[in-house]
Amino acid sequence: MLRQSVCSFACIGIISGCGILPDELSRPASEYRGTIPTKTQTPTDAALSCLSRAGDVKSSNVTLAVHVINDTTGKLGGDETGSVLPRDVAGMLVTSLQKTGVRQVNRVNTAVTEWELSRAQEQTLGDGRTVQIGDEEVTFRPIERGVLRGSDYVIDGNLTQLDFNTFSSGGEGFIGGIGGAGRVFALTTAADLRVTNTQTTEIKIAESYSKQAVGREVFASIFRFFGNEDFDVKIGEKQLEGLHAGVRWMMADAAYDIVSKITNHNGACDRFLPAASQIERNRS
Question: What's the pTM?
Answer without folding.
Answer: 0.79
